[in-house]
Amino acid sequence: MPIIAAQGLTMRFPGVTALDDLTVAVEPGVTGLVGANGAGKSTLIKILLGLLPPTSGAAQVLGLDIARDGARIRERVGFMPEYEALPPDVSATEFVVHMARMSGLPPTAARERAADTLRHVGLYEERYRPIGGYSTGMRQRVKLAQALVHDPQLVFLDEPTNGLDPAGRDDMLGLIRRIGAEFGISVLVTSHLLGELERVCDHVVIIDGGRLLRSQAVEAYTAASGSLVVEVEEGRDRLGQRLHDQGVAVRPEGRLLVVDIADEETYDRIRDGVADLGLRLVRLEQRRHHIEEVFAVGSEQPHPVPQGAPR
Ligand SMILES: Nc1ncnc2c1ncn2[C@@H]1O[C@H](COP(=O)(O)OP(=O)(O)OP(=O)(O)O)[C@@H](O)[C@H]1O
After folding, report:
1. How many Cβ atoms are within 10 Å of 142's Cβ, its own excluded?
2. Domains of the chain by range and CATH?
């Protein structure tokens, strides 16, 4: 059964249609909701939380109706908002305990759950320092912790990698993967960066101008390509030259060789080359497409959200 289902959701604000007849179903797991700035992602989340009544259409979250059961949805769904309104003068512990109490946990359980959750998001050491002195990455973790503290079945994470540097982004994506894989909590995570979602999501839903562009398993986007990636410890150029001399289409890429697969013999030629030259093979695998390449070339749809698109 889908954890989220929407039928013909439309949201009109004066002068702008934020959602336009959106029908989509999301299964359990980690799902990316991708769309450029203004595509309607945050509006959809607010509607699904029962905080904003849509102009028309219907939706159910965990089988609960958004029009009738908003409070029950919010009991069972965690929410990490895009913008922050964290109090600077209190510590992460105080804030997350407070949020746990607001969700109805008794005092002792709230303290225990807050400590556990802060440890899971990697904020344990700094948990007694005032939030005002935290970095952007630490503040994002506080927002994530408060979304998880009441042990929800599902969390909505609105642009959780916003404002993070590449290392902070990697850490946050790793955390999101763990929320799904280790804690069994389903995740709906929004991003305007299509590329980062293929690393953590099972499924992506792409919206543009409030309309559904695609809803598809990530695996379907990242199907195997016709190239092999070869990594050897040393002797990359000698192997490349040998393959080239044998008529194999090969090109260097960083420490790797990328070899076009002509037929089954391509594998044999690589294996023989590595053996004859006495090289150590580190990796030989079929290259997978990246979601972004699929959208940039050979797709019936235009590339909806370029990596690093200005916000
Ligand atoms: N309360 C509101 N009143 C008027 N217009 C709104 C309101 N909320 C959202 N909009 C408009 O609806 C459209 C969709 O906004 P939304 O915030 O859902 O987009 P988004 O995909 O989440 O983008 P972002 O990542 O910038 O938040 C935008 O044109 C926005 O300006």
Report:
1. 25
2. 4-221 (3.40.50.300), 224-288 (3.30.70.980)
Cβ-proximal residues to 66 (8 Å cutoff; 6+ apart), any chain = 47, 48, 49, 50, 54, 58, 59, 60, 73
pLDDT of residue 222: 65
| Residue nearest ligand 1's atom 25 by CA | 37
Q: What's the average model confidence in pLDDT over 56-61?
A: 98
* CB 82 less than 6 A from any atom of ligand 1: yes
pTM of the model: 0.77
Q: Cβ distance 73 to 188 under 8 Å?
A: no
SS3 259: strand
| Cα of 41 from ligand 1 centre, angstroms | 8
Cβ of residue 38 lying under 6 Å from some atom of ligand 1? yes
Write out the two tokens for 149.
């503290």
Atom in ligand 1 nearest the alpha carbon of residue 11: 12
Binned at pLDDT 50, 70 and 90, residue 303 comes out as very low
Q: In what order do the strands lie in the sheet with 56-61?
A: 16-26, 4-13, 56-61, 64-65
Atom 11 (ligand 1) nearest CA: 18
**8 Å CB contact between 150 and 113:** yes
